[in-house]
């Protein structure tokens, strides 16, 4: 009969707990996007501007587009968005709306109604706080 040392089950449980903790704390989509460099955020904002121009709308409503649409820039497609909405003055991209804290929503929009010449690239997890990662004159 094979004897298992008494410490082995405890070590195995501690090892599994460590692996689970590392998986939980790994960088998510939000964190990876947030920590990209300014050049990446500028290129992403430019891709959003391109969508605003190419998907121009005659009304104040929005239209929804597929990431597979050839007019969607590669930098946006590389995020594998679930949904893309474009209006006359904003672009909204849902990458992952999961409630695990790993979600990512990206919005390119004017800073506010009075300062429409300053635009923000804003990110959020899909719930809770949002954060501007890039600001530019538009």
Account of the protein in words:
This protein has 4 helices and 6 strands; from the N terminus they run αααβαβββββ. The protein is an alpha+beta fold and 138 residues long. It has one domain (28-137). It has a 6-stranded antiparallel β-sheet. A hairpin with a 7-residue loop joins strand 3 (91-96) and strand 4 (104-110). The N and C termini lie far apart (75 Å).
What's this entry about, in short?
With 138 residues, the protein is an alpha+beta fold. It has helices spanning 7-25, 29-34, 38-54, 74-77, and strands at residues 63-65, 83-86, 91-96, 104-110, 118-124, 130-137.
Tag the structure with descriptive keywords.
6 strands, alpha+beta, 138 residues
SS element count, helices: 4
Assembly type: single chain
Rounded mean pLDDT is 82
Strand content: 25-35%
Q: Could you name the ranges where pLDDT drops below 50 across 5 or more consecutive residues?
A: none
Largest sheet: 6 strands, antiparallel
Distance N terminus to C terminus?
75 Å
Give the beta-strand count: 6
Number of domains: 1
Elements, N to C (H/E): HHHEHEEEEE
Helix content: 25-40%
Using only C-alpha atoms, the radius of gyration works out to 21 Å
What is the topology, as strand order, of the major beta sheet?
A: 1-2-3-4-5-6
């Amino acid at each position: 009969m094979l004897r298992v040392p008494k410490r082995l089950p405890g070590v195995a449980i501690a090892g599994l707990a460590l692996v689970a903790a590392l998986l939980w704390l790994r960088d998510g989509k939000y964190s990876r996007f947030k920590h990209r460099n300014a050049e990446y955020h500028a290129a992403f904002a430019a891709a959003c501007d391109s969508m605003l121009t190419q998907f121009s709308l005659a009304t104040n409503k929005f239209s929804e587009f597929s990431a597979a649409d050839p007019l969607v820039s590669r930098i946006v497609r590389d995020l594998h968005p679930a949904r893309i909405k474009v209006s006359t003055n904003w672009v909204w991209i849902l990458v992952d709306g999961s409630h695990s804290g790993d979600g990512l929503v990206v919005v390119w929009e004017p800073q506010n109604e009075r300062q429409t010449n300053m635009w923000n690239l804003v990110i959020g997890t899909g719930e809770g706080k949002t954060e501007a990662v890039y600001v530019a004159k538009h």
